[in-house]
Amino acid sequence: ADLVIDGFDFAPTFSIWTTIEECLNPPIIYERDRGWFTTEPFSEPETFVFPEGIGALGCVNVEHEEVILMPRWLDVGRVTFKYGLGDEFIDVLKTLRKLGLDSTRPVMVRGQEVAPRDVVAATLPNPAELGDRMRGRTCAGSLVTGLGKDGAPRSTYLYQVVDNEWTMREYGHQAVVWQTAVHPVVALELLATGEWKGAGVKGPEAFTADPFMALLNEHGAPWAMEEHTP
After folding, report:
1. Among 1, 96, 168, 216, which residue's Cβ finds the most Cβ atoms within 10 Å?
2. Residue 132 has pLDDT above 90, yes or no
């Protein structure tokens, strides 16, 4: 993202409690010949040029469920999940860990039990209330590299860019939480109408993507694709 939050030295755009969990847990990687395995937090740093003028950002591995779900239903060689956190955000998270402030285990403070991570979350601004201070856009996407239908090497980035000014004007909510919410809403609609069917515990990768992508457009959440050099 190229989001800027006015008035704060440090203000996450999503729940810091969840962010600590995702970013400081060992990231999971999948490889066809090896299966699932973990690596160090913030591993495999790379610079990725995000579309529509957002530009180059450093991305690192974090723990996320897509790495677990995709190989169960898709024929994939390798799956990772990365956030474009930036050096400052990574330094803050590393400092929280060094100080033990990422811990969920309660400690006694002046006769009261309190979890250090809860204190961090209570101290920082509420992400849901930052919308009117935020400027810029957020981007989420999937980079798929392999062979196209013609057998030639292909690398395609499927993505969605959301502008905070637009989500605040249209919905009264900031871009990150809006983008997080709209996709499960669309999935629930497909389940409710019977377009998606199934039994048991399934991820979105278990269903056909076409109706989901079409419904995103209908709900004013358009997506785009761009070709990269394989």
Report:
1. 1
2. no
Confidence of residue 36 (pLDDT cuts 50, 70, 90): very high
DSSP for 138-192 reads EEEEEEEEEE-TTSSEEEEEEEEEEEHHHHHHHHSS-HHHHHHHHHHHHHHHHHH
Question: Any idea what the CATH number is for the domain that residue 184 is in?
Answer: 3.30.360.10
Per the structure, the complete domain to which residue 87 belongs is given by: 4-228
Residue 220 pLDDT grade (very low, low, confident, very high; cuts 50, 70, 90): confident
Q: State the chain's maximal CA–CA distance in angstroms.
A: 68
Residues in the chain: 230
Cβ neighbors of 12 (< 8 A, separation 6 or more) are 19, 89, 124, 127
* Of 129, 117, 146, the residue nearest 228 (C-alpha): 146
Q: Which of 171, 134, 116, 173 is nearest to 1 (CA)?
A: 134
> What is the domain count for the chain?
1
- Answer whether 157's CB lies under 8 Å from 228's CB: yes
